[in-house]
Amino acid sequence: MTSGAQSSGVQAVLEQPGGARPGAGRPRRRVAGVPYFLLLPGLLWLAVFFVVPMIFLLSQSLQTGSLETGYRLTFRFATYTDALSDFYRQFFRSFLYAFLATVLALLIGYPLAYAIALKSGRWKALLLVIVVAPFFTSFLLRTLAWQTILNSDGLVMKFFRGTHLIELTSALGWTNGSQLLSSPLAVVTGLTYNFLPFMILPLFASLDRLDPRLLEAAGDLYATPFTAFRRVTLPMSMPGVVAGTLLTFIPAAGDYINSRLLGNPNTAMIGQVIEGYFLRINDYPTAAALSFALMLTILVLVSVYIRKSGTEELV
Amino acid sequence: MVETLPRSRPAGRAGKQGAPARRRRSPWAVLRENLVWVAAVLALIYLLLPNLVVVLFSFNKPNGRFNYTWQRFSLDAWRDPCGAPGMCESLSLSLKIGLAATLVSTLFGTMIAFALARYRFRGRTGSNLLIFLPMATPEVVMGSSLLTLFVSTGIPLGRTTILIAHIMFCLSYVVVTVKARLAGLDPRLEQAAADLYANELQTFRRITLPLAAPGIAAGALLAFSLSFDDYIITNFNASNASITFPMYVWGAAARGTPVQINVIGTAMFLLAVVAVAIGQLAGRTRTRVRTR
User: Smallest Cα–Cα separation from A261: which of A172, A148, A116, A163?
Assistant: First the structure.
């Protein structure tokens, strides 16, 4: 057994298919009926409670009426243009913050995944536990903890004031005036933090599969450690990078917890608008149009990204 | 010049061991090697800092309603964890929904994973796509689309609708986790069983299922934590009478957070560390036995 089996419990989580041993477990039987019987309950569930709701969402976005008087399908496409012209800022901001959080999570997560996979030796299992464990405490609670960490009496704030960083970040528009909370910086910090494990685990899974002898070989062929990293480690970890960035970017773009708990009205993301229009304003067509537009934008971005990065095995 | 080169590269020895060769490194290389660790430790601190705050503030005695600033040490909240009104009810609802969602999604998800990993059939690509899509959909979209379904068809919101939603979004993660485990299994083990006159059912029960078990357990654990922790989708599909723990925490964030929330958070963290550690140890012993 390879070292990969040692940490299978954690590693199997979010592990991307396609990287397994060649030929292992390849589908080989052809028995009519059996696979369909196995698929039926699960796929039926997804069809009824994922696909059908999407159709209802699309239909809702083209209806007119109100919750009290009832809705009628009138194919009013103007709901989309109205909603997007009202909320293009929140829309754009969601993708900007999600992009920043993804890049930061990659920069923060890669060294950690690299250290655990290739340099930790017998500490590997323990370090993995430390990475996964925070996952299991309520993430809302952990996001609330950031309020404590970033509040104006906190250590982080003292450091920012002491080093006069706060003037710089305020000038850049990342923070407001003299505080860190309720600012774009706080929201991006929270987003990066919340989705970091989703970045680290796929990165770890692909780096853990890297044969150290390849790096040896690169060294033998006069590659400097940096060249070996650039030409061997990084390309071989690309499936992990792609999976990690997707698993970070997609939920981050739809998130509104961080922008609500750590931000202010000027950091509102599109999820916040959708939630408000559905649950408080009860303007279902506008909310449905924004929701469907978000879904479509993400699908387009993701399929372009997957095509560009050449990893089709994800699907 | 030619003579000095081989001495600095003991390639043959290191290549065979598969471990990094011990060779003299330049100070720059040593520094860079440690830079990885510096970055890794900083990342770990970033990951654990909020958990430390949660643990620390579970021993706080706040002056007002808000538990944001440290006042003084107290064990009050630990002595009376259910002292916050409504919190333990929400906790037990989350546990019930989490267990039910885990059970159903693990069963259905494992079945799908077996079908995809073990059989070739028409519609395989389509099935894979249908399983991938929920993971590529933001929660707010899934939550709102389910809400439009339930509202349009007149299904009342409550525990049932929460459970339906949770099973839906946990399913894909179970499939991916179990499938990864099945893909890593050596097919020769099953072939050997067949060679030893085991029939399909015996092979499945005695060989395949035990080998897949860690993957199924990981999938179930993931499903439970996803269900237990979900706020966004639940918020769209819950009624005022069905408050889950994350919904309770959200509400408390506005009203003033009772210290008991931090007690529950700390207990969950400790339980998770113990559970994951046991899983890791069990996995390691099993591997050692198998290799021998």
Answer: A148
Q: What is the ipTM of this complex?
A: 0.85
Chain B contacts of A220, Cβ < 8 Å?
A: 9, 11, 15
Predicted pLDDT of residue B220: 94
- Which tokens hold the place of B160? 């049932």
- CB–CB of B148 and A53 under 8 A? yes
Residues in chain B within 8 Å Cβ distance of A29: 118-120
**For the packed helices B259-291 and B245-255, what is the interaxial angle rounded to 10 degrees?**
140
User: CA B167 to CA A6: how far, in whole Å?
Assistant: 30
Model pLDDT for residues A131-174, shown as the tens digit of each residue: 888 877 888 999 999 998 998 777 788 888 888 888 888 888 88
* pTM of the entire predicted model: 0.85
Whether residue A137 and residue B271 make contact (CB cut-off 8 A), yes or no, is no
Distance separating alpha carbons of residues B271 and A116, to the nearest angstrom: 23
Q: What is the C-alpha end-to-end distance of chain A, expressed in Å?
A: 28
Residues 6+ apart with CB under 8 A from B131: A46, B112, B171, B172, B175, B176
Across the interface, do B138 and A39 touch by the CB < 8 Å criterion?
no
Contact list, A119 vs chain B (CB under 8 Å): 33, 36-37
- Residues B116/B175, Cβ–Cβ less than 8 Å: yes
Are B149 and A53 inside 8 Å of each other by CB?
A: yes
Task: Please state which of the ranges A223-237, A265-279, B89-103 shows the lowest mean pLDDT.
Answer: A223-237
Nearest C-alpha of chain B: how many angstroms from A256? 8
Q: Do residue A27 and residue B119 have CB atoms under 8 angstroms apart?
A: yes
The 8-class DSSP code of residue B136 comes to: G
Whether B214 sits inside 8 A of A8 (CB atoms) is yes
Separation CA A219–CA A228 (nearest Å): 7
Q: What is the mean pLDDT of residues B148-160?
A: 94
Q: Measured between CA atoms, how close is B229 to chain A, in angstroms?
A: 6
- Helical residues (DSSP H) of B185-258, grouped into ranges: 187-195, 200-203, 209-229, 232-237, 245-255
B262 vs A: CB within 8 A: yes
The answer to whether the beta carbons of residues B70 and B57 sit under 8 Å apart is yes
What span, in angstroms and rounded, lies between the C-alpha atoms of B129 and B114? Answer: 16
Strands A70-73, A63-66: parallel, antiparallel or unpaired by DSSP? antiparallel
Q: Which residue has the tokens 């546990």?
A: B95
Displacement of CA B41 from its chain's centroid (Å): 22
Asked if B175 and B112 count as a contact pair (C-beta separation under 8 A), the reply is: yes
- The DSSP element (H or E) to which A70 belongs, if any, is strand A70-73
Q: Rounded to 5 degrees, what angle do the CA atoms B197, B202, B205 make? A: 150
